[in-house]
Amino acid sequence: MKPTIPAISTTTTAPPSSTTITDILKTPKFVKFTAISLLSVSLLFLATHFSSSSPFSSFSFNYSSLPPQKPPQLSHSPPPPPPPAVRRTGIIDETGAMSDDFFIGESESNSTSGFTEFSESNEEGVKENTSDGEVRVRFEKFKVCEKSKVDYIPCLDNEEAIKLFNESEKGEKYERHCPGKDKLLDCVVPRPEGYQRPIPWPQSRDEVWFSNVPHTRLVEDKGGQNWISIKKDKFIFPGGGTQFIHGADQYLNQISQMVPEISFGHHIRVALDIGCGVASFGAFLLQRNVTTLSIAPKDVHENQIQFALERGVPAMVAVFATHRLLYPSQAFDMIHCSRCRINWTRDDGILLLEANRLLRAGGYFVWAAQPVYKHEEILQKQWKEMEDLTARICWELVKKEGYIAIWQKPLNNSCYLNRDTGVLPPLCDPGDNSDNVWYVDLRACITQLPANGYGSNVSTWPARLHNPPDRLQSIEMDAYISRKEIFRAESKYWNEIIDSYVRAFRWKDMKLRNVMDMRAGLGG
User: Using CA atoms, how far apart are residues 120 and 375, in angstroms rounded to an integer?
Assistant: First the structure.
């Protein structure tokens, strides 16, 4: 029997291959384990790096290649001390400079009533010692002046100074003569008795409360010339004047027809009305987009400017006498004089030369007066003198019609420079600053125009409001290159500020008409 040979299998058991390890690495458990391990190591690193007090602070890595970093200081600093109480601030002193030499006193609990009510007391300041040792001063309100001071203007009602010029024919007594410090007013000028809230514009153009300007002299002197009348408790303004008794509107139409180039509200935007009366000329120019400054002296008709302001027309007490008016050269596009009672030819024409300084190059001078149209010998002599003087200062008589004569100032200096030798008046000295006006004496000379045309080349209205004029370059100010940008920026700034004022202070409800801007800058 043959022995049985055991069967031998040809399949052998192989050792674990690399495929098995890869499968293990791909298992979800291993992936989770690896992620948790990496996260733990990261947390340990962060804890070691940012906290020296960490229980894992012994765990370290070699970061010698990185710059050392100090751990942040976590100590809490004490809060800053409160700001010191404001004890002083700046005010404008009598010279116009900023000063901090004054004390702040306490206001009374009812101090807001000071805007509408007056106190009868003006006691000296009462010193009070506070608990912290400081001395505070409390001032009482000023008393009200006597009723005779209702129209008082300090620099124009200085009786001692006025007496010195009573005999003068040049009008010095109507100029500014401010009292000394020892004679300053120590009381509040009172309102007229029965004063009422002004009638709002545009109704105020035609009527105002009698009690607000209780003067009848103009009614007595000019009532027959259609200036002004009284009706019950109001003054009524028909719109007439000595030379335009049929009304200012018809008068302005006549001027426009005589010289169409005047073009009110486009070429003519800023006008000066000399000897304004009750300011009907300026009042009716407003509706033609012309801003008119009405001026008159404080004379026997001392209430002219009060009527103008009460009506809502820009006005100022001023006089052609011995000093320059307080406006720069080339300030007005048109100057108007209707029976303004000024002798323009006296003293070598010194007053007309002041008007020439104020008038813009190419501007118009409108004169409505008896010498223009009356044939009396003395009046015709005055007309011939006026004709002669205006020719010598290079004004062109554009039109003479009825009782109105209109001249135009030249656009440049060519006429001045081509005059015959020795012709008077002479040209002003080149060093004379024609914009210097504060207490500057009048000069009997012709103010030359800028050679570069500054002043004459202005845009028409309303583009003129936003286009920086060339003469901006001649104004004394710190900036030089950026002046036009400053002009536009100031305009934009004040536009936004006024919008805020209207909203915050409800200016529309207040129906404001007359506003004084005490630091006008560029007029924004």
Answer: 60
Please report, for residues 140, 155, 160, 476, the alpha-carbon distance to residue 183 in angstroms, rounded to integers and kept in the order given. Answer: 20, 11, 11, 35
What is the DSSP-derived secondary structure letter of residue 323? B
Rg (CA), the chain: 42
- Given a contact cutoff of 8 angstroms between Cβ atoms, the answer to whether 488 and 513 are in contact is no
The model's pLDDT over 114-136, given as tens digits with 9 standing for 90+, comes to: 434 444 444 455 666 666 667 77
CB 394 within 8 A of CB 354: no
| Residue 207: C-alpha distances to residues 283, 434, 443, 476 (Å) | 12, 40, 41, 43
Q: How many CA atoms lie within 13 A of 11 on its CB side?
A: 0
Q: Rounded distance, CA 87 to CA 101, Å?
A: 11
Mean pLDDT of 336-362: 96
Q: Are 105 and 125 in contact (CB under 8 A)?
A: yes
Q: In what order do the strands lie in the sheet with 229-231?
A: 207-209, 234-236, 229-231
Q: What are phi and psi of 40, to 5 degrees?
A: -65, -45
The helix/strand/coil state of 200 is coil
The answer to whether residue 335 scores a pLDDT higher than 80 is yes
Determine the Cα–Cα distance for residues 81 and 187; give it in Å rounded to an integer. Answer: 44
Neighbours of 504 (CB within 10 A): 8
Q: Which residues contact 147 (CB under 8 A, 6 or more apart)?
A: 190, 193
**Which residues face 317 on adjacent strands?**
296
ω before 425 within 30° of 0 (cis)? yes
Does the structure show a pLDDT above 50 at 65?
Answer: no
| DSSP codes, 217-280 | HHHHHHGGGTS-EEETTEEE--S--SS-TT-HHHHHHHHHHH-GGG-BTTTB-EEEEES-TT-H
Place of tokens 């027809």: 257
3-state secondary structure of 155: coil
Identify the band that residue 18 occupies on the pLDDT scale cut at 50, 70 and 90. very low
Residue from 375, 229, 337, 310 nearest 514 by CA: 310
User: CB under 8 Å to 295, separation ≥6 — which residues?
Assistant: 272, 273, 274, 275, 276, 305, 315, 316, 317, 318, 319, 325
Measured CA to CA, the distance from residue 45 to residue 62 in angstroms comes to 11
Span between the terminal Cα atoms of the chain, in Å: 136
Cross-strand bridge partners of residue 337: 274, 367
